[in-house]
Amino acid sequence: MTYKEFLTQINEKKVSNVTLILGDQPYLQQNFRKALKSLIPEEELTMNFAAYDMETTPVSQALADAASAPFFGERRLVFIDNPYFFTGSTKRGIKVNHDLDELLAYLEHPQPDTILVFFAPYEKLDARKKISKQLKKVAEVVDISNLKEPQIRQIIQTELKQNGFTIEPSAEQLLLERTNADLTLIMNELPKLQLFRNDTKVIDDEAVTGLVTKTLDQNVFDLVSAVLARDTELAIRLYQDLLLSKVEPLQINAILVGQFRLLLQVHILNKHGYSQGTLASTLKVHPYRVKLSLQTVRHFDVLLLQRAYLGLIDVEKKLKSTAEDPEMLFEMFMVQYNNTSISA
Asked: Which reaction does it catalyse (predicted)?
């Protein structure tokens, strides 16, 4: 079920007794929480609503609440946050004993007057676990783990429309690029943009450029583009800008290595017939990053990408084992990379 279908279900008061919200999207999770709480009359919330964090509270405590009949009301609402026991994670350092047999028994026979909602901020659950299988068997699953670009655009436009605003297509594209299509980041930026353009009610390129700061990944993506274009002067300037922003050389290089690894993977798998959606799920990266990578790799030979990747791996080794100047190491990398005779 999509986020939009779930909100419609809430508005129609047809929510399942057990619901799983899968994915780390704080903005949508907050919207769901607010909408779900509206199902309980305000005067009943104190007695018929509770939230439990599984990293601090035993699941048995949440289940005792969920199994209880509503107190002078029609429904009881229980939120369970961070149910890591549905995943393969062991959560080191957390000393909470969870009775999963009790949870399994509840899922087999849910309390009909209770709406039990699991907020699982993970990409996926461990499908091998008996408890995960039972959850997926009985729960309505709302998967917000990997929102596609059209869905993100729709959310942006809906949010703006509710406040009487529109956004120009080029400005929307720029907003996606500067936030790496991170929905929560985008939603944090929209209030500033609306305030800035309160007179015209139209978000344009100037507003986005002036108010939305590029993420570190976006800055490094610009650096990757400069490297691929063999624009040594621009690449060095962008590298220096990152250093001036107090980003550690090892961190810059690690992100560069990750970007070129992704480009190589996308290039190779795309040649083997993988679609954009399949690439995103196989590589476990945001669909928007895959889209940008596909747009990039079609212009470059795989050996050229490999040359850059191996060169950056060599830089990483030297950063970790020598006292050589990081900026000089990057300049040497650019010189060696530019001297390659491989053509696209």
From this structure: DNA(n) + a 2'-deoxyribonucleoside 5'-triphosphate = DNA(n+1) + diphosphate
Nearest Cα to Cα of residue 83 among 10, 156, 148, 136: 136
Q: Which two tokens stand for residue 1?
A: 């079920």
Beta carbons of 308 and 227 less than 8 angstroms apart: yes
CB 22 within 8 A of CB 124: yes
At which of 94, 116, 143 does a domain end? 143
- Whether 299 is covered by a domain: the verdict is yes
Angle at 147 between CA 23 and CA 279, to 5 degrees: 100
Give dist(CA 47, CA 73) in Å, integer: 9
Q: For residues 142 and 233, give the distance between their C-alpha atoms in angstroms, rounded to a whole number.
A: 47
Per the structure, the complete domain to which residue 68 belongs is given by 3-143
Boundary-marking domain end, from 124, 143, 162: 143
- Provide the terminal-to-terminal Cα distance of the chain, rounded to the nearest Å: 43
CATH number at residue 191: 1.10.8.60
Kindly report, residue by residue over 36-60, the tens digit of the pLDDT: 999 999 999 999 999 999 999 999 9
What does pTM read for this prediction?
0.74
Q: Where are the alpha helices (DSSP H) in the chain?
A: 3-11, 26-37, 45-48, 59-66, 100-108, 130-138, 149-162, 169-179, 183-196, 205-211, 216-228, 232-244, 249-271, 276-283, 287-297, 302-321, 326-338
Confidence of residue 341 (pLDDT cuts 50, 70, 90): low
Given a contact cutoff of 8 angstroms between Cβ atoms, the answer to whether 59 and 67 are in contact is: no
CATH number at residue 117: 3.40.50.300
Q: How many domains does the chain have?
A: 3
177: Cβ contacts below 8 Å, ≥ 6 apart: 218
CATH code of the domain containing 277: 1.20.272.10
**Do 315 and 333 touch, CB atoms closer than 8 A?**
yes
